[in-house]
Automatic annotation (TrEMBL):
Full protein name: Uncharacterized protein
Species of origin: metagenome
Amino acid sequence: MTNPPRLPFLNSGVRRVLSFSAGAILAMFSLTPAHADPAPTLLWERFPGSVDYDFGEAVATDTTGNILLGGQTWGSIGRRDNHGADAFVIKFSPHGGILWRRQPGSALSERLRGIATDPADNVVAVGETGGAITGTSHGRTDGFVVKYAADGAVRWKRQFGTKFDDFAFAVAADTAGNIIVVGQVDVRGPCCETGDAFVIKYAPDGAEQWRRSFDLSGLDEATGVATDDAGDIFVAGNTASSEGPDYGAEDTFLARLSPDGTVRWIEQQETASDDGAMGVAVDGMGRIFVVGSQHLATYPQGLVAAFSGDATELWRRAFGSGLSYDGAYSVAIDAGGHVLLSGSEAGKSIVASYSREGALRWKILPERFDRGGYAFLTADGTGHIAVVGTADVRVAAGHWNAHVARYEVD
């Protein structure tokens, strides 16, 4: 079969920016809030799953406060097991009741990486498949997109890729219901492995509007995406240097694109260590927040950084002892405009809240998110947050269980 054409490169220059010194970052490790804001109250938690291994890896909320949990299962959640691992989506009411379950899959394995809702409460799930969710496989691993109606009916499916390994890592929907998917497309040559970060924009009916990739050196990936009220697109990701003294070191990048795909700017932070960006969010005032990690010594520390709309860095904060693998995995803006992040610290899951100016408001350690401390969150417009992850708790029939918890924030 004929493979789809390689994603076109963007011909925008990359502006290089100075990194913070190790001393400056270390000085930020312990940020005690000037006053203790009330920590969130746990309302309920659920452990949906199969009799096998299940992992919670993505979360979203809709306009009425329903919660969408996405992940991967080795059993049967929404329908009969399709062999190997499948993606799954479960929709919960604000009170924790299950409204519907879906298990998109093929004869091979799938993994769900990201989930989002649009203004009409449609649900969009993205990830990768080793098979053919749409009936056509392009290579060893393809990215996929599935759009569901609010009642769980499948509206459309898309599958894309090269003959190698391609991944969809994150998804967002703009105010017009357009869908933006980011990830990595494999463009390896005959001698070596490489890849490009990509962005694909779909219309609400699934028609592809455009696709772009970033002309950065080395192995690149786009790991987070967000949109603002004007339809601009914000992409966070990572790039590994392919030359120079920092060969192999991973740097982060942040890009802003217009609704038609034109690149407004790209910022790449270069350090001699491995840094990682995992998520991005935009608040109502146009400020951009990126979370991830930065290596300063043997182990990484978690990071959250704030930028203005023109990519000027406003502040950054770090957490972690430097004695364990710490990092931030997702970021959201709550109803009060505060910055929320989830991540891991000392092997435990954390959820933290920062003010717009970067002051730590509170930090909690949710119980039972046991698989390496990985947790992901979202916030609704009514003062609630939802946190998902994986728990080694035998409250359900399986081994590892997907876990979702809803909190109220004062």
